[in-house]
Amino acid sequence: MSTHRRSLVTLIALLAVATTAVVVSRRTTREMITSVAAADDATNLPVLLGAAPTVTASGWLNTEPLDARGLEGKVVLYDFWTFGCINCVHTLPHVKAWDQRYRDDGLVVLSIHTPEFSYEADPGNVRRFVADNEIRYPVALDPESVTWRAFANRYWPAFYLHDRGGRRRYQHFGEGAYEQTETIIRALLGVDPSSPRAVVVT
């Protein structure tokens, strides 16, 4: 086999692997789900990581730029997504419900929009999607994947939940585990276990 032909075969193989990785990352639903069990007592949750990386954004929707000082003392749900990802769209009613129910209790949903395709990177398209879907929580635009890389993230959607001290206590990749995620949000916030849960509108 000629050197040119071997190079061509290698290139095709690499492209096939890359394409498969993209499909897996956008369609993840069950794999790589955290092993942390739901707990009403936040002290039972392990510390997975210290302080969250800085969110670096080319623009912000629904808020002024947020930094560590602005998030101090808050429980923060970092939500990685892109509007063209159907799995991300499926999680949206739950994220919106959590924001509405627990914002006054100290939850900050910090949505990080990291696009894969060029149409998703257009700020105007993101702005329209956010407006059309009545997303009220902060959205950080991450078109160059700066924050994505800082978090060493690999999935759409991905949730990273940090406590009031800034430490990561829970993470989940893909759809599902909504009840578990909400239970852990409640535990980290210290809300009354008998208080109403979020109302999800689908």
Mean pLDDT across the residues is: 85
Radius of gyration from CA coordinates = 18 Å
Low-confidence stretches: 3-38
- Secondary-structure element string: HEEHEHEHHEHEEH
Overall structural class, as computed from helix and strand content, comes to alpha/beta
What count of helical segments does DSSP give? 7
Written description of the protein model:
It is a single chain. The protein contains seven helices and seven strands, in the order αββαβαβααβαββα. It has helices at 3-27, 68-71, 86-102, 118-121, 123-132, 146-150, 178-189; strands at residues 49-51, 59-61, 75-81, 107-113, 139-141, 158-162, 167-173. By secondary structure, the chain is α/β, with parallel strands linked by helices. It is 38% helix and 17% strand. Helix 3 links the parallel strand 3 and strand 4. The longest helix has 25 residues, at 3-27.
How would you concisely characterize the structure shown here?
With 202 residues, the protein is an alpha/beta fold.
What keyword list fits this structure?
disordered N terminus; globular; 202 residues
How is the topology of this model organized?
Elements: H1 3-27, E1 49-51, E2 59-61, H2 68-71, E3 75-81, H3 86-102, E4 107-113, H4 118-121, H5 123-132, E5 139-141, H6 146-150, E6 158-162, E7 167-173, H7 178-189
Parallel strand pairs: 3-4, 4-5
Antiparallel strand pairs: 1-7, 2-5, 3-6, 6-7
